[in-house]
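Continuing the series of single-chain predictions for the mutant panel. This is the parent chain; the variants come on the following pages.
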Amino acid sequence: MGETRRRRQPSPAREDGDAIDVLVASGRRQKLRMLGQALGAPRYRCMLASSSSEALQRAAERDFGVVVIDASVPELDGFGLARALRKRKRSRKVPIVFVIGREADPASVYRGNVAAPVDHVHRPVDRDVIRTKVLTAAELSRRDRHIAHLSASLREAGRRAREGNVTEAAAVADKRYSNLTQAIPELVITLDAAGSLEYCNRRWLEYTGMSAEHSRGRGWVLAIHPDDRRRCVRAWERSLASGEVLEIECRLRRGFDGAMRWHTCRALPERDDDGTIMGWLGTYSDSEELKQAIRARDEFLSIASHELRTPLTALKLRLESLAHTGTPDERASRKLQGAIRQTERLERLIDHLLDASRISAGRLVLERGPVSLGELCSEVLERVREQPGAAAQVFELSAEGDLVGSWDRTRLEQVVENLLSNALKYGAGRPIEVGVRGDDDAVELTVSDHGIGIDPPDLGRIFEQFERARSSHGQSGIGMGLYIARQIVQAHGGEIHVASALGQGSVFHVVLPRHSRPLTPLP
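Parent structure:
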């Protein structure tokens, strides 16, 4: 017994025992270094891999707590690498955090990857978000292992029960289950195969203020914020029907003061030896602080943009006033006009930051009305022709008939301006064609140039925040125009995509429904 106690004593060699071993895979060296730096805190031990084969080799050599995969990792894409890891026994249960573009469908990240925790973050990657995601994934993995061990114990209890040790087996299983659920800080509930709550741990009772009796059956849903309740119930019902792991965010009411705090809900199906779902194990993890950090960042961005705009507007007015007075010095006049152009450029950048903050906060509101897209494009073209360097540019507009739709005119002008400015910047001075055509249901806008083109791997990335194609190196801009254009188009219920190749120009396609599409009501 003395020897056993000595083995359990902590040793200096395990001072970093809480550190998380993280494998980071990305084909972009800059992104790889950035991710490594973001996870460079003492809490993480990072190993970097610049290709799929290198990542698979490292995963075969040691065990990792979490794998972070950039969807652009070469050889296999990010999802192909994830499937390869899932096929190997050593890495089959390792949680994965994908780094994906805004154009990616989050549902595709989770499909076919329910064997272990899977999460994602969008580019550009926020350091606090990626750290929180990795920490959460590691914790979920640890918890899932506990749950799997518990399930094995329950199955063993059933076997022992069949052998006649019913009382002993039930007591052992109940005690292990109770100890597990009471020890972890999360709110824990278990539900039967139909989704009715059967058990909740002490943390659930303390946080919600609900009794176990009132929580049973479907009573647990009353702890969810009324605005989130129907969405969460529908998500639960989809998981009950499909048998897939559920992960969703919602607000839970805190019992003692009525505060509503954001939580991440995760539920795992519990299956018998034949694969039949016997019940569900659910946890709620508090994510309020992460939500507040993101909101604070967006609010700062919005306030800073507004504060910058005020002195910039005053500066622009003074410069324009000086320009109107005229000056005999030609050189001074050119410098003055250049200063005015720079203030206009700063105004556009600030407008982009304001739009980005509105989009992030969900405040992109559309003011719909009848708009002729052909007429709108003609007016925008006239304004673009007045931009510096556009006087000699050839623009060709082809519009079929009077295609009118229910759209936000100001926002669509912004989309067309961003696409034309993009074509003007990268079109190498060659003609730019604008086309408008459609039918009774939808209208398609195309903006074509014959310039430097876009490398195929960059076609999806250019619609993300602060991203530009590699072929645009040396050009000015912060990479927000196409991101904002895409958000506006999607807010109208439309789609935007690009076809391009290096040296062959680019064609941007925008498809807009002519009429507002009402939301499908809940059954």
